[in-house]
Amino acid sequence: MPICTDRTILITGAGGGLGRAYALAFAAEGAKVVVNDIRAEAAQDVVDEVLAAGGQGLANSGDITTLAGAQAIVDAAVAAFGEVHVLVNNAGVLRDRMFLSLTEDDWDTVMRVHLKGHYCLANVLGRRWRDARKAGMPVDHPRIINTSSGAGLQGSIGQSNYAAAKAGIAGLTLVQAAELARYGITVNCLAPAARTAMTEGAMPELVRKPDSGFDVWDPMNVASLVVWLGSPLSDGVTGRCFESRGGELSVADGWRTGAVIDKGARWVPSELTAVVGQLLDDAVPPQKVYGT
Length: 292
Known about the structure:
By secondary structure, the protein is of the alpha/beta class. The chain has one domain: Rossmann fold (3-Layer(aba) Sandwich), CATH 3.40.50. The protein is about 45% helix and about 15% strand. It is built from 9 helices and 8 strands. It has helices at about 15-30, 40-50, 65-80, 105-135, 150-155, 160-180, 195-200, 220-230, 270-280, and strands at about 10, 30-35, 55-60, 85-90, 145, 185-195, 240-245, 250. The protein has an 8-stranded mixed beta sheet, sandwiched between helices. α1 crosses α8, α3 (about 65-80) crosses α4 (about 105-135) and α4 runs parallel beside α6. The longest helix is centred in the middle third of the chain and has 31 residues, at about 105-135. The chain is globular and about 70 Å long.
């Protein structure tokens, strides 16, 4: 039985790659999908696929990086389908360079699309869902699903701007989940690994589709988790960051306070060599930065 019947899902960056997979997978589970992508033709192509399979969809090329643009996107979705129940913040962009070679535009573009892009639609929809709940007409199982990355969780050589933005999204997810729980809104993020335009450009041989057998890098593998998170079945799951690749699924264990050594007085700087050495010896080593 479909798990998202009559739910409206707004997906950004859905003209290809993971976003397209999410749209098709949600539609297959009975959802109405709003396919947002800066490339209008690509968005419409995905909607045509949804319609051809018997689903319902709306193409949209609105700007996710301004509140005015986000409001216009939500207005279009509500006009078409009556309500939005799930936001999947998926849109992204790369400007990969070694840190000292980054231009100001490289930095600002990645922050605008990733971090501000995650803020704008979530803010518009969050306020809409909050107001509906206060008015006694709560939206059915509202969901925000953000997109972090392995680069954001552990860093990646040549991607300091992208890694910083994705780490920011993981932190944003924690705060959103804590603040929005009172309105019945769950917020989770994922660090997906799949074949997309970005990964094909960065590591084409690794993500190449195999001639036979299980296609580990197929974006539809990740879509299964996203659909579940967007469904009523995920009630009670919030503030988590999932990692997904092929058939692998895990919950990332983020920053947490480790062992504490307390002198009960101010440390003398020269004392700290041994103390910090002990703390590091007792700590779980961090995962290596990608590319090292």
